[in-house]
Prior knowledge:
Layout: H1 11-17, H2 19-26, H3 34-45, H4 49-61, H5 69-80, H6 85-97, H7 105-117, H8 121-133, H9 141-160, H10 164-176, H11 184-196, H12 200-212, H13 220-231, H14 236-248, H15 256-267, H16 272-285, H17 290-312
Amino acid sequence: xxxxxxxxxxxxxxxxxxxxxxxxxxxxxxxxxxxxxxxxxxxxxxxxxxxxxxxxxxxxxxxxxxxxxxxxxxxxxxxxxxxxxxxxxxxxxxxxxxxxxxxxxxxxxxxxxxxxxxxxxxxxxxxxxxxxxxxxxxxxxxxxxxxxxxxxxxxxxxxxxxxxxxxxxxxxxxxxxxxxxxxxxxxxxxxxxxxxxxxxxxxxxxxxxxxxxxxxxxxxxxxxxxxxxxxxxxxxxxxxxxxxxxxxxxxxxxxxxxxxxxxxxxxxxxxxxxxxxxxxxxxxxxxxxxxxxxxxxxxxxxxxxxxxxxxxx
Length: 313
């Protein structure tokens, strides 16, 4: 069984599923002092692949330098051409997402494959998704299954060593039945390991498991607990879902003020989630008094401070 039973997918779905990888890298500590940045740049210019990758990542996420996709691609490519697997993967991501660089499936597959051949589990998994969806390559479920199995091996090894990124991905593979037999109990186990380490995407997915009663007894209180933890880390999908639960009084008391406040945070981000949150917020505002709206704005300010504090840790 694959992640996309009908064999169809879009880049947005693939990017969301692998979002953990980018989220984790984006929140890693970066060089913030100009002296450190110049030392890193000097090492990168002298050909050190790890420094080139780190500099590319800084430009990707705007950490210590202005965000600059062209510079990110430049430094990722220099590291990738030296065989640095993480840079090869990120270069593939840039081409496949089509956001930082023009979308080019063939270039994406080329770099994913090089990273996979170097043993990088994230690239194994991404190739599985691509071959299953048939986007950029001929659809081939047998080839997809092969890459999924390789990904599962790599993720399991890293997950057992405590890597929260790998724990989340292994949980996701057990939930989908990709590269491993579908097993909701195992999915919950690995989501929980990652969630307890603070991985927002794992917290979000653990919440969904509790809400749906998959691998655990259905428990809306636990669902809200884990969802709130992800939302307070700035995860937009969690903020939107939490707002919806407050608006409906599902798993918690109905509270339009809290719902509106969380929608406020979600709309400040980007993408489909923000647009959906904006529509719900507009509808909800018509059901609230001026006093409730003022209270919601005040609470939203408090929530932003919580999210900010969470990201700085």
